[in-house]
Structures are given as structure tokens and as C-alpha cells.
Here is the input.
Amino acid sequence: MPAQEARFPPVIPLGTDAELVQLEPQDAEEIFAVVCANRGHLGQWLPWVESTLAADDTRRFLEQVAANREEGKTAAYSLRLRGALAGLAGLHDIDPANGVAQIGYWLAKPHEGQGWMTRTVQALLGVAFDGLGLERIEIRCAAGNTRSQAIPRRLGFTYEGTLRSAQRLAGGRADVRIYSLLREEWGRLGSVAGREDRIRG
Ligand SMILES: CC(C)(COP(=O)(O)OP(=O)(O)OC[C@H]1O[C@@H](n2cnc3c(N)ncnc32)[C@H](O)[C@@H]1OP(=O)(O)O)[C@@H](O)C(=O)NCCC(=O)NCCS
Here is the structure.
């Protein structure tokens, strides 16, 4: 078994009929179709959407993800609900020497508002803190992206500050808000059952 398979779980169960499945280049057609069906929804906040014009663009992204995984820098997953692709999420910029990483995510529009991405990020935090032994996880959100900001806030992250004009979006340049969670804060969030109550509130 390659070393990375032991470090990054290939499949992470999220409960009945839901799981995170490690991204592979053969997912390109399926992911590209979901991106195309959600161009307006995703393109507002994710600058790569406008340059994703063919399944080959998605395949190149997935090949880069696989190469980064081999180097231990990225652990990216599709969120699957009854097997169907609902979104993508992952740890990126993993830096074991410094004990840090970032989390990024997107959901197809029909799956918003049901807590799937909060549960997904919670599972990725388990990989990061319990599996990889990292010390700090960061989530960066455009200042106007309140739905995205609600995820780290719901999970007990701390808002640390704003990087001015740090991102180019389809609508123009955007300030970027940084949220972080530390290992000891993750421990204080309590049992899995306790977290579930908390994130619903
Ligand atoms: C950012 C994004 C993933 C957020 O999606 P979301 O559906 O709001 O987030 P979740 O799946 O965690 O769902 C949270 C919602 O489900 C509700 N919910 C229901 N059950 C829940 C549960 N068990 N746990 C948490 N929330 C739950 C929450 O109350 C919340 O609803 P609200 O917005 O009405 O308050 C999505 O809007 C998206 O993909 N946007 C475009 C791409 C993007 O912006 N990516 C991030 C770039 S930084």
C-alpha cells in the first residue's frame, strides 16, 4: 500500500448514504458536468470556474491534485450523497513541518442549506488534527461570501483578520477573511455527538 493511502483515508464515511471519496483523474467528466450546471453559483466566488471550459481542464486539475497528494500537500475529496457528486472539499497547502493546512470547498446549489459542507469540514478537521497531527487549520473566505464564512464560524474557528484586495473574483477584487482553528480548540469542541448538536445551533 502506498504511504499516502495510510496518511490520507481514501474514503471517509459521513453517515448513512454520504461519504467523502478521494478525488481521481477519472472523476473529470462527472465533476465538469456539475461545474457546468453550477457556473453562476460557483463562478461568483471561485475564480477557476471561468477558465474551466472543458473536461480536460478539470482532468488537469485532478492530475495536479493527485501529484500534490503523492507529495503529501493535498487531500481532496468528492462529497457523494447516495453515490452522486454533491461537491468537493479538501485540505490543501499541507505543511507538516509547520503543522498547518488550509481547507477549501464548494457545493452544488441543490445541496446547499442542509449542513453537508459543515459536516464535511468537520470530517476533514478529524483527518487534519487526529490523522495528520497538524496544529492549525485555516479557512479563507471572500469578505462578501457570508455562506462560506458561516462554516468556520459554526465550527468554532476564530476570525483573525482581513487581507485587503487579496483575491480576484469575477465581480472584481475582493478582501479575504482568515479564520483559524487550533488543535486544542478542536479538542475542546467535545464529543462527536456534542459537536453535532452545536453545529446545528
Ligand atoms: C460555501 C458553501 C459550501 C456553503 O454551503 P452551505 O449549504 O451554506 O453550508 P452547509 O452545507 O454547511 O449548510 C449550512 C446550512 O444548513 C443548515 N443545516 C441543516 N442541518 C445542519 C447541520 N446538521 N449542521 C450544520 N448546518 C445545518 C444550516 O443552518 C445552514 O443553513 P442556513 O444557511 O439557512 O443557516 C456553498 O454556499 C458554496 O458552495 N458556495 C459557492 C462556492 C464557494 O463559495 N466556496 C467557498 C469559497 S471560500
In short: The chain has a mean pLDDT of 92. The pocket of coenzyme A is lined by residues 41-42, 45-46, 105-107, 112-118, 141, 145, 147-148, 151, 199-200 (CB under 6 Å).
